[in-house]
Amino acid sequence: MNRDQYLFIIYLFLLVLFTSIHNIWYLLVAMVSIFMLSYKNLKYLFIRVSKTVWLSLLVISLSYLFMGLFKEIKLSFIVLLNIRVFLLTFMTFAMLERINIFNLLAFSKRLTSLVTLSFSQIYIFQRTFVEFQMGYASRTLKPTLATWLKSLNATLFYFVNKTLHTSKDISLGMKSRGFFND
Questions:
Q1: d(Cα 129, Cα 123) in Å, to the nearest integer?
Q2: pTM metric for this prediction
């Protein structure tokens, strides 16, 4: 086993452990510990995690508080949930910063091939999306909601068609290389 596989096993253990802890103070101590372990990237990770979870935690918290108008609720539950979600998300992002997913999956040639294929598709789609954004910005003098929606519609149509076409090609290529044994 390599370093990345050991770190991933530790991550999975901590994921289960922190999911099973129902004491707010223990989770806060764990969060501070994880913050201290990621001191080099703390600000970057904190901002990234905050941007990722703030909307969902806000909706869940407000929904739970609204439910409190109709039945008795425990505010400690919503605090526990918010801390736990933030801790697990922070831990996941920190783990993804530290490990190389290709080294993690080095034990399986097929998994490594699938992850390589997925990453290549992600980068192609990401580059294409940026090109769509630049094209929209260069072709639109006065952006309005209507023109943005037309552009979004065209972009989504392109990506759906591209995904369907690419998935058929990839499926045929994988079958020819023996990925599917049916």
A1: 10
A2: 0.75
Q: Which residues contact 165 (CB under 8 A, 6 or more apart)?
A: none
- Both tokens of 145, joined, read 């909601």
CA atoms within 13 A on the CB side of 161: 6
| Tokens standing for residue 115 | 């992850």
Does residue 71 contact residue 15 with C-beta atoms inside 8 Å?
A: no
Of the candidates 99, 72, 124, 128, the one whose C-alpha atom is nearest the C-alpha of residue 11 is 99
- Inter-residue contact 78 to 65 (CB < 8 Å): yes
Query: DSSP code of 39?
Result: G
- Per residue in 146-182, pLDDT (tens digit) is 998 999 899 999 999 988 888 888 878 777 777 766 5
